[in-house]
Amino acid sequence: MIHRLQTAHSPRDEAPSAIQKRTVGVLVFMQVIGTVGVGVAPSIGVLLAGEVTQNEAWAGLARTASTLGAALLGLPLGSLAARYGRRFALSSGWWIAAAGSTLLVFAAQWNLVVPLFVGLLLIGAGSAVSLQARFAATDLAAPQHRGKSLALIVWVGTIGSVLGPNLGVPGEAIAAHTGLTVYAGAFLIAAICLAAAGLIVFALLRPDPLLVLREQTEQTDAAPQRAPRLKLMFAEVRANRPARYAVVAILTAQIVMAAIMTMTPVHIANTGGSITIVGITISLHIAGMYGLSPLVGLLADRFGPRATIGVGILIFIASLTAGALWPGDTGWIITSLILLGLGWSFVNVAGSALFSTAVSPESRATAQGGVDALSNLCGAVAAFAAGPLLVISSFSALSLLAMVALVPLAALTVTRRADAGQSSPAAH
Questions:
Q1: 198-231, pLDDT tens digit by residue?
Q2: 400 lies in a domain?
Q3: Neighbours of 17 (CB within 10 A)
Q4: Do 102 and 212 fall into the same domain?
Q5: How far is residue 226's CA from residue 224's CA, in Å, rounded to a whole number?
Q6: CATH of the domain at 292
Q7: Considering the domain boundaries, does residue 428 fall inside one?
């Protein structure tokens, strides 16, 4: 099949390597610009939610809105890609997120609750398309370079994701010259970046990699499969032990990370920290999440996903221990957040690699999209629950509860039953 794809031709075909090189270049450019806008939600968006609502319960719901938006919009955007191609789906997602960020400018300027919720929900589309971009990078990649292409798109997103939480600094400059609030200025910059990312991919992602792949597949497959993919996905995960283990790893990493990361800006603000400290802390956390992803991928290939996940669990424990023991020390909180991001990277990257290998090719794309959506949904629930828990207890207690959430994954990891090497070469 792969050999036939590589040798198939159509009148409009360029060399596959040339199309792939241009595709990756466009996605890199798009990802850097777009993730600047996406990165504003976990820090400034969290603080804005508390300021506008003045109610911890409503603020908790607002804080989870962007993550919930990513979960709700992930599958529809995936369906758009399947029907119309990556170019249409990615540009639509960025522009939806830009509309959400524009609403947040008004919410921040005039303390409007409804635009706050709707804006945060819509800006979640940026997270969804940022995830979808990593799969777009593999559409036309040679089999031996798919992991490298995927890791590159994940890694370059670090640049924008680290800059995004610090938009409060240029937001202050805009506020001084325009009369906008700091938060409104930050979301104005985010809206411009998100809209620009959509324009970049719409104008430059030609030919569309997914449509080219589909054309090549139709030329080489006399009878393309049209199985009910969602049913196939659920049936396979139920019967596939390595895939189930990978799903548990991905979801656990997201729950632990979202619960702690979402409430850290609130905790820092409550202890007297400035918006600059919040931005720096979240930026370093995101750098921990994505900055070493290529290295983590290499470690997973070399030592196996199970061992890499085990290392991630240990890093998570170190992070949560620091948060539990020294919650009032800004230096330790920053250290805890860096380790939290690094632990997420080890568990999520290794779990995602195992999942992609464990599921069959027929259900792989649908399964990956489904797991992304479920992961975002679990993150939203965890972030929402973390708010009331922080109010009635403390940051230390929240860190200890996150440790408890790691127990099922740790138990699976230390048992031979979780060893995917029995069923998949990916674990070796």
A1: 999 999 999 998 888 778 766 554 444 444 555 6
A2: yes
A3: 13
A4: yes
A5: 6
A6: 1.20.1250.20
A7: no
Q: How far apart are the C-alpha atoms of 20 and 26, rounded to whole Å?
A: 10
| Per-residue model confidence as pLDDT tens digits over 351-373 | 877 776 776 655 555 666 677 77
Counting Cα atoms < 13 Å in the Cβ hemisphere of 247 gives 21
Q: What are phi and psi of 360, to 5 degrees?
A: -75, 155
Instruction: Verify that 175 and 304 share a domain, yes or no.
Output: no
Give percent above pLDDT 70 in the chain. 80
Nearest to 286 by CA among 348, 353, 345, 373: 345
Task: Dig out the tokens for 170 from the structure.
Answer: 């240029």
Read out DSSP for 225-282?
----HHHHHHHHHHH-HHHHHHHHHHHHHHHHHHHHHHHHHHHHHHTT--HHHHHHHH
Q: What string of H, E and C letters represents the secondary structure of 43-83?
A: HHHHHHHHHHHCCHHHHHHHHHHHHHHHHHHHHHHHHHHHH
Domain final residue pick, 156, 191, 221: 221
Domain of residue 387, residue span? 228-419
Any idea which residue has 């250290």 for tokens? Answer: 335
Give the ranges where 111-228 is alpha helix by DSSP (H): 113-136, 146-163, 168-178, 182-204, 209-220
In degrees, rounded to 5, the angle at the alpha carbon of residue 115 between the alpha carbons of residues 112 and 121 is: 140
Confirm whether 427 is domain-assigned.
Answer: no
Residue showing tokens 């200025």:
185
Helices (H), ranges, 304-329: 305-325
Give the tokens for residue 354. Answer: 């195992």
Query: Is residue 304 a part of any domain in this protein?
Result: yes
CA distance 360 to 292: 28
